[in-house]
Specification:
The protein is mainly alpha-helical. The chain is 41% helix and 3% strand. It has a two-stranded antiparallel sheet. α2 runs antiparallel to α3 and α3 packs across α6. The longest helix has 16 residues. The N terminus is likely disordered.
Length: 191
Amino acid sequence: MNTILRKSVLGIAGLAFTGGVFAGPVAAHAADTTTHTKPVAATVQSDKLIPHGVQGEQSRIELNDEQTANVKAIIAATKKAGMDERAAVVSIATALQESKLENLGHLGDRNDHDSQGLFQQRPSSGWGTVEQITDPEYSTTAFLKGLKQVDGWQDMPLTKAAQTVQVSAYPDHYAQWEQQAADLVAEHWNS
C-alpha cells in the first residue's frame, strides 16, 4: 500500500493510539481483516517455534507484498544476529501486534507519542533515530538486542518476552499472533 493511500485509509479509520509507551493493536486497514481462531496445540513441526503452545484465541491477517517483505527482513536480521527461529517468532508476533507488519511513519495526531516503524519504537526512548527505527533491519536488531537482555526469554510465553522488551500498555495482546508468526517463520526461514 503506498504512503498516500495508507494515510488516507488511516485517516478514514480514525486510528487513535492510546497511553502507555506503546499502543495496542494498530488498525492499518479500513476494514478489519483480522480473523480469530481457537487455540491450537503445537504440532511436532512447531515444537521449536511454539514450545509452550499458544495462549488464547489466535488472530490472523492476510499479508500483502510489503508485509511479506517485512517478514523476510525480520527473519534475515534474526539470522544475522545469530538468533534462532523462536526469536524470529517473537519478533514477528510483536511486529504483527504493533504495526500489522507495516513500516509505519509518523501518523500525526494518531501517533502514540513518537512511535514509528514495524515495532512502534520511539526515538525519545532511545531506540534510535526516525531513519533507523523505520529501517526493518535496524528496528529488528534493536528489538532483538532488547530480547537478548531478558533473562530466560526462550522459556517464557511469547507475550511475556515481547512485553518485557516493548513495555506495552496492552501486555497480553502479543499472544494472539503466535500461531501466524510461527507459520510465517516455518514458511520463510529457509527461503
